[in-house]
Amino acid sequence: MKLNSPGEENQTAENSFAPMIISGPCSAESEEQLINTALGLKELPRLDYFRAGIWKPRTRPGDFEGLGAQGLNLMQKVKELTGFRLMIEVAKPSHIEQALKHQIDAVWIGARTVVNPFSVQELAETMKGISIPVFIKNPVTPDLKLWLGAIERFHKVGITDLAAIHRGFHYFAKSPYRNAPMWEIPIELKRLLPEIPIITDISHISGKRSTLAVIAQKALDLDTDGLMIESHFDPDSAKTDAAQQIKPGDLKLLINNLKVRKHHNYSGFDITLEKLRTEIDKLDGELLQLLAKRMEIIDEIGRYKKQNNLSIFQLKRWQHVLDDRLSIGTNLGLNQAFLLQMLEIVHKASIGQQEKIFHPVEAGEPRTSTSSDGA
Ligand code: PEP
Ligand code: MN
Predict the structure, then answer these.
(1) Span from the CA of 37 to the centroid of ligand 2 (angstroms)
(2) Is residue 262 located within the same domain as residue 300?
């Protein structure tokens, strides 16, 4: 799957900021707002798409719901004036039809739409045969399968210009951000679909201007393919997402201060990295051998407990193992939360192994994996 990166055509040596940049207001509000914002964005080292929401999915009726078709006419004015490529959110087949009539160059599917496979399927079928890029935001909830499923639905109808947008997740626990980034989810998406570029929507993750730069740098450190950032010539007056939009001039500063990391090229030779990786490979091998040896002893313990009619789980022993290993590990400088997670995983696997000894299944009968919660 490929994704056109139109900005690259216009890059020169001194403005070659590599990751894709998508910016523009949360919502199209007026001609003055769109034109002033777009003219400000002209100063960026790179802009691949000028974005704006035309139909806004609001939590409650009565809030500003976008300009609709009028907003599309204004977007076309921006294109005439600046030459920018345009990107909008589509949530219904009629949005796609109208977008095409107004020279929109790419669309994104919003987080609230991606949670609904019926809507995604309907949009994918409407896009069939249309060759503009589709960017798919992560669903509001931290559900990788839903995100993958949405990408697959578009891919299945033959759309190849596909990208994902990571905009963070609604999460019940406290997060310093509006939407918890849960970086492990886009990282897993990248592992499963390495061809799909992932753009980080730092605005919807952050929720406020003050943490945009930190999140942008983190995204680049994790090798994002691009950034989506909401911008507004007068953010405080914005009708939607006022707290997180940034003035184009401040965005230019933010981008100029970012450190773009190089991709490591496997065919190239980086002696320092190669040496360190060899050491890691060796240590991982030793770790695995130790784990296998540990499991052999667990087998012996399981057989002994069964013969002597002892329970598999013994609270006192588990408490001792936890206290002892946490103390050794933290003295070695390891992070306590990491240690705890690791010990719990190892313990769970040990319990599962002993259960197999206590209740061997008939030969050929499939077994489910261990599930001894709390053990
Ligand atoms: C937006 O990009 O303005 C937007 C509504 O995003 P999301 O679907 O991620 O909430
Ligand atoms: Mn927004």
Answers:
(1) 15
(2) no
